[in-house]
Specification:
Pfam families: GBBH-like_N, TauD. Keywords: Dioxygenase, Iron, Metal-binding, Oxidoreductase. Belongs to the gamma-BBH/TMLD family. It is an enzyme of class 1 (oxidoreductase). The protein has helices spanning about 30-35, 90-95, 125, 130-145, 155-165, 230-240, 245-250, 295-315, 360-370; strands at about 5-10, 15-20, 25-30, 65-70, 70-75, 85, 120, 145-150, 180, 195-200, 210-225, 225-230, 255-260, 265-270, 270-275, 280-285, 320-325, 330-335, 340, 345-355. It has about 375 residues and is of the alpha+beta class. It has a 6-stranded mixed sheet with strand order 7-8-18-11-20-9. A 4-stranded antiparallel sheet has the order 10-19-12-17. α4 (about 130-145) crosses α9 (about 360-370). It is globular. The mean pLDDT is about 95.
């Protein structure tokens, strides 16, 4: 349904808009309006970059008049020959004061919530020219924190081509697209056959990878079951059941490091990262890579207690989704939300995969959603 304006009125240094249907009135300051003008002289129509000189706008600026025509509000200013333009949809989106937010609801889960099946999309759909399958896959990842693509040719070339549909592949100390066995090529447990507990990758990176993908190209052995944990669900359980532990886990900056292979990387983040409204933003947890740090005695004790609670929950089978990754199935998961782990195994296992930056994935998702 199109948004409609009932009336416009200049009131001193503000423009008042009365919205049809509910009588709601929004008041827009003149300086803000001039700074957000949508006309070509003030904003690049392609990039939407601002070209108006914000700092030349008079602090006491007041509109001269305003009119509505064909879904656009036009505002006239003193000593300016051209009017400013504002799509009604833009004014409606900015009707209430507040910081920008993106509505992307999440489905938090435990293992039992996935008993009816895992979120998945066929390879042929994801690779289709119309991008509808790609949009479905990325939307599933965004909602659940992970999703599978089935029927993928078990080759590194096909896997890399699939992942490049998401965006460009991130380069790290491990390279870009990786294809490896348990050859201990790096100082990391991923390059071994031992059990790996639930963790996120890149805790030692200032901007840790946003997403990670795995494809098991070859497997001849026993064990090696993959484990995934929705750490957002765990965090919300802790927030509800133990607020003191939640406060500690969301406020104590935990340092992490990677030493070896010619680098010494370091970064620090709380285990539970929050956004400006207290919502969950990012989980950063890898007990293997935690660097030494010391707090005041009582705070240190509270940290260890809270850490133990977090560890007990992520290792509780009720929170762990377990399945064997086998040739033909690619999993893409949110490394800022979903912890991953692996059972120890014996035999031969060849794995390939890659990282994507958080902003690149979300950019792709926004463009696909805009296409509808």
């Amino acid at each position: 349904m199109s948004v409609k304006i009932e009336s416009l009125q200049v009131s001193g240094t503000h423009l008042e808009v009365c919205w049809a249907g509910n009588g709601r009135v929004s008041r827009y300051p003149a300086v803000w309006l001039r700074d957000h003008c949508h006309s070509a002289r003030s904003m690049n129509p392609d990039s939407q970059q601002r070209s108006v000189d914000t700092f030349a706008i008079p602090a006491d600026l007041a509109p001269v008049s305003a009119r509505l025509e064909a879904g656009t509000v036009y505002v006239a200013w003193p000593q300016e020959a051209e009017e400013s333009e504002y799509p009604v949809s833009f004014l409606e989106a900015m009707a209430e004061p507040g910081l920008w937010q993106e509505d992307r609801p999440k489905r938090l889960w435990m293992a039992a919530d996935m008993e009816d099946g895992l979120p998945e999309v066929p390879y042929s759909a994801v690779m289709a020219v119309d991008c509808s399958g790609l949009a479905e896959w990325l939307n599933l990842v965004d909602r659940h924190g992970f999703a599978l693509v089935t029927g993928v040719p078990a080759t590194p070339e096909a896997t890399e081509e699939l992942l490049k549909r998401v965006g460009y592949i991130r380069q790290t100390i491990f390279g870009g697209f990786w294809d490896f066995t348990a050859n201990k090529a790096f100082a990391d447990t991923a390059y071994s056959t031992v059990e790996i507990g639930p963790h996120t990758d890149g805790t030692y990176a200032i901007d840790s990878p946003g997403y990670q993908a795995f494809h098991c190209l070859e497997f001849d052995g026993t064990g090696g079951e993959s484990i995934f944990v929705d750490a957002f669900k765990v965090a919300e359980v802790i927030r509800e059941q133990d607020p003191e532990a939640f406060e500690v886990l969301s406020s104590v900056p935990v340092p992490a490091q990677y030493k070896g292979d010619g680098v010494h990387l370091m970064a620090e983040n709380p285990i539970i990262g929050l956004d400006r409204d207290g919502g969950l933003r990012k989980i950063t947890y890898n007990n293997y890579d935690r660097a030494p740090f010391r707090l005041e005695d009582s705070r240190q004790a509270a940290f260890y207690r809270s850490l133990a609670l977090f560890n007990s929950l992520i290792n509780d089978r009720a929170y762990q989704l377990r399945f064997g990754l086998r040739p033909g199935t690619v999993v893409l998961f949110d490394n800022w939300r979903v912890l991953h782990a692996r059972e120890a195994y014996e035999g031969h296992r060849r794995l390939c995969g890659a990282y994507h930056n958080k902003e690149d994935f979300l950019s792709r998702l926004r463009l696909l959603r805009k296409r509808g």
